[in-house]
Amino acid sequence: MRSKMNENAIEVHNLSKDYFISSRGENWRAVVKNIYKPEKTAVQAVKALNFTIKNGEKVGFIGKNGAGKTTTIKMLTGTLFPSAGTCRVNGYDPTKRINDFKKSISVVMGNRSQLFPDLTPRDYLKLLQSMYDIPEEIFQKTVNDLAQILNVTSKLDVQTRKLSLGERMKVEFLAGVATRPKILFLDEPTIGLDVLAKRDIRKFLLRLNKEEKLTVFLTSHDMEDIATICDHLIIVNSGQIMWDGPKTDLLERFNQNKYITFIKSENFIESKLGTKIIDQDDLSVTIKVPVEKVDDQIAQLARDNQGSDYQINDLKLEDIILELFAEEKEK
Ligand SMILES: Nc1ncnc2c1ncn2[C@@H]1O[C@H](COP(=O)(O)OP(=O)(O)OP(=O)(O)O)[C@@H](O)[C@H]1O
């Protein structure tokens, strides 16, 4: 049943997913035994997730490989049943897979195309138009506007198999939003794309979010994607939530420090630094220093003749997330 207006876009309560995999056995005896009585081991991919996403938020769902991101998206979009817990998406229970629910969301996966290689994008879009029963005039305007923002107008009548990866992904995006979903789920959507294609897609998402209040749920290993698009971050580790909150809160938590990167001198001695090394190679080294100590630290390094070409940088989102994972490991 549809819940009331002004609802949250996504509500997740204790959502869990276990996969069961059968082991083949270490020797032929075990293999034969397994045929008659298969032994199954459970993989806990998602462990009791709880989070809420408001309408119109742009959420970055971040985690290392195997953290449970795709599994979560599959449960939120109704392609996988949870082992425990519940979720509501646009007020619907995804497991019911009713048409109104399916029409209210779209999914774009960077590694799986939804287009038909033999059709042109325009033919595919017409198919969507009739499936979603969208009036001709509105649909044409939507497609033309969106194609222009994405710089793919000239590609709409080219057979899909002849498009480059970037052009195809742009058409996937276009098709994803041409049906006017309320939530767009994106799983690694810019994987393998060049900087220009990424820029067009980021601009496109920000515009749709602003103008249409489209809720965006994005998983990406590209921290530039996350940093430019998202305002709410959920970081997962081994199927559990490690951080859930506004991006600004996370940046603030780490903004008491700066990174200093410099070229090592011939006299460079690690033990003289007196501070944590973040990264180093044969040529350069990066250290983390509290903001108020940056000047003193550089003066000291210069006095000790430790290096040259000092550069002071803020911690980027990518660095912060790496530090969060490091903190978690130390616990
Ligand atoms: N069909 C499946 N059967 C068994 N185990 C699975 C299946 N799909 C995923 N897993 C396991 O569940 C865990 C979570 O996988 P998932 O694909 O959700 O991670 P992810 O965060 O999306 O990773 P990536 O960033 O690499 O895409 C992993 O340990 C994975 O091996």
Automatic annotation (TrEMBL):
Q: Which UniProt keywords apply?
A: ATP-binding, Nucleotide-binding, Transport
Picking any one GO molecular function of the record gives: ATP binding
Which Pfam families does the protein's record reference? ABC_tran
InterPro entries found in the cross-reference section:
AAA+_ATPase, ABC_transporter-like_ATP-bd, ABC_transporter-like_CS, ABC_transporter_ATP-binding, P-loop_NTPase
UniProt-recorded name of the protein: ATP-binding protein
Task: Tell me which residues make up the ABC transporter domain.
Answer: 30-263
Q: Where are the transmembrane segments?
A: none
